[in-house]
Amino acid sequence: MKKLFIALLFLLPALVQAQQGFTIQGKLVGLPEDCIVYLSGKTEKDTLASAKVKQGAFTLKGNVTETDSRMLVLPAVNRRMVLFMGNDQIHINGNTKDFSDVSISGSAAHSDYEAFIQYIKPLNDYVEYYRTQMQSATTTGGRDSLAIMLNTAYNMYENGVDRFVARKKTSPVTALLLAYSYDTDPNKDVNLLDRRFNMLSGDALNNQFARNLKQVLAVAKIGAVGTKAIEFTQNDVNGKPVSLSQFKGKYVLVDFWASWCGPCRMENPNVVAAYNQYKDKNFTVLGISLDQEKQSWLTAIQKDNLSWTQVSDLQFWNNAVVRAYHIESIPQNILVGPDGTIVARNLRGESLATKLKQLLN
């Protein structure tokens, strides 16, 4: 009983803070008398608190369950201000003529957000600037020079992100930073995102940005190399159910294609060549068609000499296997090993022949 009492004493400050909720005391010169300001959550319709302005001052009170991004909305002057906050005691002071000079204090998370805006985002702005300039460069020398500057800017930005994550592992703003860096990354480096995300703890994991990142990572890991292939069953051209597990013990190239997909049809000769070379060496292909018209599907199979098993539910992009693997473009393929583990993805042209030679010769 004594230990329980001591534990409750440690919890008491946190419980008191949650009960007290947040208070935002604002003084913004230039706000019209009696205008309404309000604090919103995920959307502007999600109003957390509102107040009437008196002599440029207002007080907002309420309670939130986690530290996250909110929006202070000032309709009378057509402005919105981001507030990273939990149940904090926040003070806002400034002038509506110059919002860049508004001071916000009382929230450690918002101080982290201001650091992100001041130090990290400008570094990525440089990256985007040099990337745009390089794409529009008209000479080889110009492109080479810009490529060096782009690489330098990119390294500075990535180092800045890593330093921020290392220093602010528990800040919810770090989850925002990771979402921002992933959204602006043209390569969508999931492994880098995963490494950085695994460093977070505490409040950094209890916000909408972190939940969105968890979903991104969960989806990215579906069908990833090294994971088990998702089992599925669909009908073949004769209406007979075929399951991926029927091919256990073989290397299986699960090939997503359609009769209407030009790049798929152009790739088919490479798949045919690979199939013919290795079909007697523990290798086969399982075609997943995104067709809607069965006759078009059958005609393409015959015309392209696709002699391996073909399945489809004729549901276009709503094909159940396509949705299970989160396929968003075709052609795509997944090479599944004899034990059901995915060993490679998107092998096309010479890369397919090279990989099969490595595995089967």
UniProtKB/TrEMBL annotation:
GO biological process, one term: cytochrome complex assembly
Residues of the signal peptide: 1-18
Domain Thioredoxin: 223-361
GO molecular function, one term: antioxidant activity
The entry's keywords: Cytochrome c-type biogenesis, Disulfide bond, Redox-active center, Signal
Main localization category: other
Protein name, as recorded: AhpC/TSA family protein
Taxonomic source organism: Deminuibacter soli
